[in-house]
# Entry
Amino acid sequence: MKKFKYLTLDRQFASGGREIGQKVAQKLGIPFHNQDILELAAKNLGVSLNKAQKSEETIASSVIYSLSLASNPTLYDNGVVPMADKLFFEEAKLIREFAEKEESCVVVGRCSDAILGNRPDCLKVFICSEMQPRINRAIEQYGLKSNEAERMLRKNDRRRTSFYEFNTDRRWGFRENYHLILNSASLGIDTCVDIIVNLMQQA
# Structure
């Protein structure tokens, strides 16, 4: 039996984390979950994707409340719970369902390392990079000027930090939360992919 069947991948904005996750999934022939989590959560909640996207960028009302929802679904009340809380709860439920129903998969972001953190068969990885390579990547991907790209990076890193730390009560990117932290600029995308694939294939 393989040691790790599930991969959670957190990442700095424009570090190549999504690409790494996609390539790992392709090499292993397993499902890849990222944007589809948001799309399915929006569908289940009966809201537009645009509304869900805006809610996903909003910090939920309280850490304790969000965690209590995750552990006790009977507290879920459509008339009371803020949309940000509903969305986080629904995404967490979907991520747990993926791990229960699929033999193996890759999940990117959305506090998945904390949500699946109690599973010994889950490999938790954080992808980081120096600022300039990330700026270059953002310029290439989004057609931004250098100063615009840097502002986007800092804004998205702050948003991810706030979202993660508010919903998990952990420090985003902190080494104790992960099995592995990889610098995609120093190692290269394909090397990061190979390292993760090798770990996922170990018995």
Observations:
- The chain has a mean pLDDT of 89.
- The chain has ten helices and five strands.
- The longest helix spans residues 146-168.
- The CA atoms of residues 42 and 48 lie 6 Å apart.
